[in-house]
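Let's practice the habit of predicting before peeking. Look at the sequence and jot down your guess about where helices and strands might fall. Then scroll down.
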Amino acid sequence: MLREFRDFIARGNAMDLAVGIIIGAAFTAIVNSLVEDLINPVIGLFTGGVDFSNLFVALSTESYPSVAAAQAAGVAVFQYGSFITAIINFLIIAWVVFLLVKLINKVKSAVPTGGPEDAEEPKGPTQEELLAEIRDALKAR
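Done guessing? Here is the structure:
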């Protein structure tokens, strides 16, 4: 059983998956920093610094000045502003990832591979040419 487990872990798929998860986590940190530290402040300039995260409805008869005050009072809070912020951040992150992937694909396609396996194989005769050869061979008999 230990040998099977060792073989499973040593198999390329498990190692590739582990590396992918680690790189994905690091990439997530980069994208989140890009969005939070660079893009959101620029968007804040255009929206006048509107902060959606403090939009809420307290599920009680009293009103509260902030989400923190309502939560400190032990009131259930419907935080639709945080949801709006999460949607906006998701759309921004998805757009940034799209642009990064597009850029990476563009760079990949610009780099020539140049290997002999990439050389185009010579094309053989077409079907019509083969049929013409067979016809001519049959006529020659």
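How did you do? Residues 35 and 93 are 7 Å apart (CA to CA).
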